Amino acid sequence: MAKQKAKTRKDDLRTGTPFWVKTPHSTIAAQASLTQDRFDVIVVGAGISGALVAEALTRAGKSVLILDRRPPVRGSTPASTAMIQHEIDMPLTRLRKKIGKDHADRAWLRSVRAVADLVKLAQKQKLDCQMRPKPALYLAGNEMGARALAAEAKARTEIGLRAEYLKRADLIARYAMDRPAAIWSEDSASANPAQLTAGLLRAALSRGGRIVSPIEITDMAELASGITLATKKGEVLVADHAVFCTGYEYLPQMKTKSHHVTSTWALASEPISPLPAWMRDTIVWEAADPYLYFRTDETGRVIAGGEDEEASETNSDPKKLAKKAKIIASKLRDLTGVKIGKPVYTWSAPFSVTDDGLPVIDRVPGFERIFAVMGFGGNGITFSMIGAQIIAAAIAGKSDPDAEIFRYR
Computed over its alpha carbons, how large is the radius of gyration of the chain? Predict the structure, then answer.
């Protein structure tokens, strides 16, 4: 019997108030106490990863119990700016050098497919979450100049992705932004992450799933016939499988040198009118360090973020939050000419990144029936969709052709 501690790391998942927590239908009620029922799968974590996993498993006919130490949809998910990108943090040209051409190409293609699948899922479930397909604009910066972006656009085109290389004159003419170059690409999207997550959890509940909160898991064990999880209160839960979707508060067994925790800052403005027409329909980010990224919601509210730092604690400083918000607003104004005034909402949060920009989706080391979905990097929602697909297939006894790319490493 495999038995190990299952106490995940703890963190202050955000400072400030993300806009999304103030929107309607952005959370869901949970049961306060456990039952003695046995479930096919226990999902630990009621954020976007847990919601997507629970939705996929209940759609496949599995009985699912969802647990969280916080109220549902009140962990790190609301700190997302929900730029649902198909573009991976590490450009295709660089990822090929890092993990090989075959795996890099497949990772990028799977990311594109995941965004499309997520948009279709939201539409099919009729989720009221402002899900909207959008193109992405990737601007030259201090990390990638015009020549590097030209090579990147060529590499993407070679594997069947639509990537249009824009020279400086093209960028100025279309977007009135002065940068040496950019890549315009299809296949991204945006949404309200809290409403998306709550909607997916409701879908799982409608199929017999259950959510219990607050509850903390401290131990886990595996038998030939299933798994057991022990709670902080001494309760014991039994299931066929377990999936830990605890985000940056990951299991200690999943800690490796290949990923680390960093910090990011974000803001939301009042609805602005008029805005450049393209800004309502496009998500934008820079090939820079630190970088700026931004989009708008359906009301014309600008959502922007960036100024990431390689530290996990600095995000909790309110003074730094105010300073970073000013920098983000200033960069946005300098780049686009759009003045947002004083942000209505500002927030900061820790998040994890990996050396190759890819998520970790795999069995927990030492276990066959316990999995972890760690959708790290700037593509957390996209990677969570991939995680749900891979884990649902594994629990069904099927193999996913791309699972090896996202393995524990």
Answer: 21
Considering the domain architecture, whether residues 233 and 314 belong to the same structural domain is answered as: no
3-state secondary structure of 392: helix
Range of the domain at 63: 2-79+194-256+357-406
pLDDT digits (tens, 9 = 90+) for 70-125: 999 998 899 899 999 999 999 999 999 999 999 999 999 999 999 999 999 999 99
Residues 338 and 362 in one domain: no
Q: How many domains does the chain have?
A: 2
Report phi then psi at 377, rounded to 5.
85, -170
Structural domain ending residue among the three candidates 354, 374, 397 = 354
Look up residue 50 and give its two tokens. Answer: 């847990």
Helix, strand, or coil (residue 237): strand
Question: Looking at the domain assignment, is residue 120 inside a domain?
Answer: no
Q: What is the pLDDT of residues 358-400, one digit of tens each?
A: 999 999 999 999 999 997 777 899 999 999 999 999 999 999 9
Using an 8 Å Cβ cutoff, are 405 and 107 in contact? yes
Contact, 143 vs 287, CB < 8 A?
Answer: yes
CA angle 366, 223, 365 (to 5 degrees): 10
Contact 406, 358 (CB under 8 A): yes
313: pLDDT strictly greater than 70: no
Tally the C-alpha atoms within 13 A of residue 404's C-alpha that lie toward its C-beta: 7
Q: Token pair for residue 48?
A: 């976007």
Same domain, 227 and 265: no
Say if 278 falls within a structural domain: yes
Which residue, 354, 379, 398, sits at the end of a domain?
Answer: 354
Cα separation, 141 vs 144, whole angstroms: 5
% of the chain at pLDDT higher than 90: 81
- What pLDDT is recorded for position 378? 78
CATH code at position 335: 3.30.9.10
Q: Would residue 209 be called left, alpha or beta, if left means φ above 0 and alpha means ψ between -120 and 50 degrees? A: beta
φ, ψ for residue 239 (rounded to 5)? -155, 170
What six digits make up the tokens of 32? 């306060």
Residues 146 and 56 in one domain: no
Contacts 24+ apart (CB under 8 A), 176-179: 176/276, 176/336, 176/337, 177/139, 177/335, 177/336, 179/139, 179/140, 179/141
The CATH code of the domain that includes 402 is 3.50.50.60
